[in-house]
Amino acid sequence: MRLRIQTPLIFALLALAVWQVIVMAADVPEYLLPAPSVILGTVDRTLAVQLAVTFVEALAGFLIAGVLAFGCAVMFVRFSTLEQGLFPIAIAVKTTPIVAVAPLLVIWLGTGWWSKIVAVILICFFPVLVNAVKGLKAADAEYRELFQTLGASRAQEFRKLRIPYCLPYLFSALKISSSLAIVGAIVGEFVGATQGLGYLIMVSSAHLETATLFAAIAAAALAGITMFYVIGWAEERVIFWHGGNMD
pTM surpassing 0.85? Predict the structure, then answer.
């Protein structure tokens, strides 16, 4: 685990060092490409507050989307008519750009937290739904027949057979959605917000504060990486018995 953390950290530090040297050697103007040292100098309490706002929005939407998507997946597997009728709607929601939907969310829900949370839900819902449905159907037919032979109820089959089979698929989707959650929150903040990383990026861009802009982008990337690795850590402990990797 330590090696897996150290390797990308070393590569990131090397990339920053090369960036610093190139900017200094070429004397690149700060408004075009600030050096990492200049970007680091802009990190302050304001950035931390804006990061916290975006992270809370992303986390709330991510958790709600995960619960809703898994619940819908269970219903789809249980009732095939629901899957046939509602799955195309889920595809339509997924294929609609979140940038196009975000202004409607601001009109309907205002510029507060909920318009951003719903944007996150919309962008995170579909990957979890698709993988959860696939995972719940992944149990081998002979195992299902064995459960039926033993007189297991449908609830027991779901709890002891289908859900364990589904977990690798589910965690794979959650890791994808964890990164998308930050994107959804920031897109929502672009359209209408008074706080958050998306708001900070818009203001910094308007005032040509490129160093602050880079700091906000780096903070968003750090939030996405953190969520991804937390899900990965949980996956290793929840499905420690699963030797394969669904990614």
Answer: yes
